[in-house]
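hey can u check if this looks right to u? its 264 residues, i copy pasted from the old doc so theres a chance i mangled smth
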Amino acid sequence: MLIDGASIEKDGCKTLCIIKELNDAFKNLIREELSSIVHGSNEVLELPEYHTYHNTLKVFLDRYEDKSEDTQKGMIGELLSHILMPKIFEYLTSISVLKNKEERSIKKGFDIIFCDLSNRKVWYSEVKSGHLNASDEVSDANEILLNRAYSGIKEMFLSERDSLWQSAIIDVALTIEDGFKTTLKKLLTEDSPLMSSTKSSDKNVILISVLYEDTQNCLELQDIDSFLAKVEDEAEFQEILVCSIQKGTYQKVAEFLREEAKNG
């Protein structure tokens, strides 16, 4: 899948996406996808006059503006992941919404859950976002983010918090039209600690890093190799995909959303 404004390299289970510029095509992609990402595509389909683009901008920015810098980086990183992953992996469908059900809160639990309906698979993803520190190499900074994603998703599987799956089941109703809802809910309940072992070795995961660094100092696909070799050796998960995203700054996305809200 080609995405104007971004370069994508894939090799087996590793992917590198470099967002070179926030151009008009990429901005249009945000405009097209934002409401569905924040509220759920099925929810938008049922209530289009309520979940308008302009209303959604307000919902997102109300949650975004008073957060810490680290949280803001994370929110933009999750937004970019929501936009890019179904484009990069066309067989994946998101069954998660970006907003939390609590007013003005950030999303808790699994960052994004994807499904592969044709193969009846659920993919749990963890997104970690951050900047390059002055003393770091770009590859080292990215590996730190991937290691945080790895530790985070592993902890969730071992936490025995059935509320994580309860929240995911609620999101299915918001994201998926009738016909597939029951299938997806059953797949999720089969993974829940109330119904099965909470071990991670029978779960499919997507580990996503979002590195904010000038794309003149660019990651390369081979920079993911050492991390991938480590997690494959540990065999912690059933199947794994690793995706690293690099963008110059997160502020430009936020500035674009603010301008859109003003002009709405």
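Residues 6-263 form one domain.
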